[in-house]
From TrEMBL, chain A:
Protein name: Translesion error-prone DNA polymerase V autoproteolytic subunit
Gene3D superfamilies documented for this protein: Umud Fragment, subunit A (2.10.109.10)
Key word DNA repair present: yes
NCBIfam families hit by this protein: PRK10276.1
One Pfam family per UniProt: Peptidase_S24
Keyword Signal appears in the UniProt entry: no
EC class of the enzyme, as a word: transferase
Coiled coil region boundaries: none
EC number(s) recorded for this UniProt protein: 2.7.7.7
UniProtKB/TrEMBL annotation, chain B:
Catalytic activity: DNA(n) + a 2'-deoxyribonucleoside 5'-triphosphate = DNA(n+1) + diphosphate
Protein name as annotated: DNA-directed DNA polymerase
EC code(s) of this entry: 2.7.7.7
Domain UmuC: 2-188
Family annotation (PANTHER family): DNA REPAIR POLYMERASE UMUC / TRANSFERASE FAMILY MEMBER (PTHR11076), PROTEIN UMUC (PTHR11076:SF34)
Family: Belongs to the DNA polymerase type-Y family.
GO molecular function annotations of the record: damaged DNA binding; DNA-directed DNA polymerase activity
Keywords: DNA damage, DNA repair, SOS mutagenesis, SOS response
Length: 148, 419
């Protein structure tokens, strides 16, 4: 293809150019302005990493029922559980009671570890955390779907 | 030094982590298709349930003793295996996954030349704490010795409390005299027969064999094994042959298959799964074998297989699935009742190294398409994207896993519930 020069004495609208001169956007020109953000780029926030879900001892449970609503844990919430954390007084734990999992707060009453529900409007029996009760893990975080 | 950890009754133990109601009951886990017991809790072993016992033969004992049973939940076992190895990796810079429930790793040797039994106990405690899985550990100057140590720890759990250290030559002498040679890692039954005329019955006899004699009786492998039993590490020691260059996907049908369309669809499903398996390892196959047969307990059961060459080598499900489907069409006998079908992919070679076919023109878009399929299925779950010839949804011929526990650790809709 040979180069072709149209002498122009004054500016001329693109639409009036002959078809061979029509402009077409092929791709972004390599010589554009560099992104002013490129030196400050960081990776997007990664909740898997923040919740440390990739740890060997991290497990996910789902909460069913109202037993912990005063502690801000509601029915259908998802909780992240550390199996390897030490259950100290005040922590919310997953425990095995009567062959099933319960979510309760571990507190010391008269020198004895007790598992208590957190719901002032309903009655839940406190369970003494003796040898027959296994504390399966310690709840580290909860996640709630607000879309209902 | 070398250490090997194995999870006791791995499948049963994994089930018990998430289902506490199973903890004090005899428990067995069934094979794919729910046919046989492939894992047994200690309580089930005490009731004389044998490894591989067919369910129909033990039904009465199961009922009588309230033995609990579960289908195998490989989703769970794979995830628990990952967690187990992750804890080992926190204690050792080298972890070699040996099988789904065993891994080699390294621990430092004490200044007195013995294994660090206390460190091994710390690993046992850490695995139990993080995963809930009970493990046992064997220690030794070589991998062979650690494997023997692990087997000893397993055989007398009460005596050793989960850790046996075979760094001490005196202890080796004492224990090896009692340990049958067929229990040694890498000694197959045929080898036991060849060793018997030489008077080799115990591990001590084998360790005392002069290396040259060992090479004569067996191969250089047996010579290395004898050296390893004496604490001399052979870096190139591979007690088992490297993984054969083949993969297979064979499954029993949940319900017998009578129609050619169902047989074809089932065959395509297995072929596509096999192709996915080799893609994950960046391998391509050069041979496809497809087979289908009926129950071997029934007279005149159909049985057929076909072989096809794949050229160029491929891992494309469209090629492999298409071919397997056509092979099923050819194999099908009218009136036949099929209980099992499967495919094998052989002659596996690295995707990059395979020999090009003179006449085949590879489609340059295929790698991107397959990567997209694998990406989608990896992210959104198996069968998110599939070939139309695989059919859709659960089919009556799908392998039965009627007693599978939920996928507690891999599916958000199946995680354990706390009340």
């Amino acid at each position: 293809m040979s180069a072709c020069v149209i002498p122009l004495s004054q500016p001329m609208p693109i639409a009036d150019l002959p078809p061979a001169f029509r402009l077409r956007v092929v791709s972004a020109a390599g010589a554009g302005f560099p992104s002013p953000a490129q030196d400050w780029e960081e990776t997007a926030i990664d909740l898997v990493a923040l919740l440390r879900l990739d740890r060997a001892a991290s497990f996910v449970f789902r909460v069913s029922g109202q037993s912990m609503i005063d502690a801000g844990i509601y029915d259908d919430d998802v909780v992240v559980v550390d199996r390897d954390a030490t259950p100290v007084s005040g922590r919310i734990v997953i425990a095995v009671v009567d062959g099933g999992f319960v979510i309760r707060q571990l507190v010391w009453r008269d020198g004895k570890p007790v598992l208590e529900a957190r719901n002032a409007r309903m009655r839940y029996d406190a369970v003494i955390a003796d040898e027959s009760v296994e504390v399966w893990g310690v709840v580290r975080a909860s996640v709630r779907n607000l879309q209902g | 030094m070398w250490a090997i950890a194995d999870v006791s009754n791995f499948y049963c133990s994994s089930e018990r982590v998430f289902d506490p109601s199973l903890r004090d009951k005899p428990l067995i886990v069934l094979s794919n298709g729910d046919g046989c017991a492939i894992a047994r809790s200690e309580e089930a072993k005490a009731l004389h349930i044998k490894m591989g016992a067919p369910m129909f033969k033990i039904r009465d004992i199961v009922r009588e003793h309230g033995i609990q049973y579960r289908s195998s939940s490989y989703e769970l076992y794979a995830d628990m295996n990952r967690r187990f190895n992750q804890v080992l990796a926190e204690h050792s810079c080298t972890v070699e996954v040996y099988s789904i429930d065993e891994s080699f790793f390294r621990l430092p040797v004490l200044p007195n030349g013995l294994g660090d039994v206390a460190a091994a106990h710390r690993v046992i405690a850490a695995v139990k704490r993080a995963t809930g899985l009970p493990i046992r550990i064997g220690l030794g100057p070589t991998r062979t010795l650690s494997k023997v140590a692990n087997a000893l720890a397993k055989a007398s759990e009460k005596v050793w409390k989960g850790v046996v250290d075979l760094h001490d030559i005196e202890l080796r002498r004492r224990l090896f005299a009692q340990w049958p040679v067929e229990e040694v890692w890498g000694i197959a039954r045929a080898m036991t027969e060849r060793l018997r005329p030489l008077g080799v019955r115990t591990t001590a006899d084998l360790a005392a064999l002069p290396p040259e004699v060992a090479r004569d009786v067996g191969t250089v492998m047996l010579e290395r094994l004898v050296r390893e039993l004496n604490g001399v590490e052979c870096t190139d020691f591979e007690p088992e042959p490297p993984p054969s260059k083949a993969t297979a996907v064979t499954r029993c049908f949940g319900e017998p298959v009578r129609e050619v369309a169902a047989l074809r669809e089932a065959m395509v499903r297995r072929a596509v799964r096999a192709a996915e398996k080799i893609r994950a390892q960046d391998l391509a196959a050069t041979r496809l074998i497809a087979f289908a047969h009926g129950s071997r307990f029934k007279p005149n059961a159909p049985s057929a297989s076909r072989i096809a060459r794949l050229s160029p080598a491929t891992n494309d499900p469209r090629v492999i699935g298409g071919m397997a489907g056509r092979m099923a069409d050819v194999m099908y006998e009218t009136g036949g009742v099929y209980t099992k079908c499967g495919v094998m992919l052989e002659g596996l070679e690295p995707m990059t190294a395979h020999q090009a076919d003179l006449f085949a023109v590879p489609d340059p878009r295929s790698p991107a398409l397959l990567a997209a399929i694998d990406g989608l299925n990896g992210r959104f779950g198996r069968n998110t994207m599939r070939l139309a010839s695989e059919g859709f949804g659960q089919k009556s011929y799908d392998t039965k896993r009627a007693f599978k526990s939920p996928s507690w650790t891999t599916r958000i809709d199946q995680v354990p519930i706390a009340r």
